[in-house]
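Margin note: ligand = pyridoxal-5'-phosphate.
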Amino acid sequence: MSIEENLKDIKREFGPEVTLVAVSKTHPVEEIMEAYEAGHRDFGENKVQEMMEKKPQLPGDIRWHMVGHLQSNKVKYIAPFIYLIHGVDKPKLLRVIDKEGRKKGRVIDCLLQVHIAREETKFGFEEAELREYLDSGQLRDLSRVRVRGLMGMATFTENEEQVKREFAFLSDLFNRLSEDYFVEEDRFDILSMGMSDDYELAIETGSNMVRIGTRIFGPREYCKTQ
Ligand SMILES: *Cc1c(COP(=O)(O)O)cnc(C)c1O
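Resulting structure:
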C-alpha cells in the first residue's frame, strides 16, 4: 500500500476530533512529500538534528511536532518554528523553552509527558511530581510556554489489558489536572497517546492526538549510532 492509502485507511477509523501526527523519523523527505501531497500537514520527528535537516527541504506550512526526548541545549534550534513539543518532562526544560520563546517572540505549545509505562527507560513526570510542580505556581511565570495537555507512551507489550490500564490512567489524569489547574484556560485540550500498535486502544480511552510512524511509512531501519 502507498503512503497515501495508509493515511486514508488510518483516518477512516476516527473522526476529525483526533489529530494524526505522521512520525517521519528515519524516513526520507521524498516520503514526507508523498504524505504532504496527499494533504497531510502534521509531521513528527524525535531528533532535533534530523528535523533541522529535513525542514528546509520541505514546504513551509508543515506543522512540525517534536515527539522525542528533547535536550535543553537543543531547544534553541527548533524554537523559531516548532508547532508542538510533546515530550516535556522536566521543569528545567520548560524554563528553557520559555527563554527561547521569548527570544524568538513566540509562545510555544507544549505537552507534559507523563511516565505511565512499566519500563524504567521511558521518560516523563510521575503524577505526584507533576502536581507538586503545578502547585508551585512556577508555570505561571513562564509566559512563553503554553501547556496544551499531556503525552504518554504505554509499555511495549502484547498485553492489551495493561496498555489499556495505562492509557486509562493518563486519560483520567488529563481530566483531573484539567479541572484542578487549567479551568481558566481553554487550551488544555490535547491528550497525545497512541502509536502504530496501540492507537485504536488509545482513542477508545480518550486520546485526541495519535503519533503514527510505521503504519504510514513502513518499518524503520535504525542506524546503530542513534
Ligand atoms: C517513533 C515514535 C512514534 C511512532 O511509532 P510507530 O510505532 O512507528 O508508530 C510515536 N511516538 C514517539 C514518541 C516516537 O518516538
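The first strand starts at residue 19 and ends at 23.
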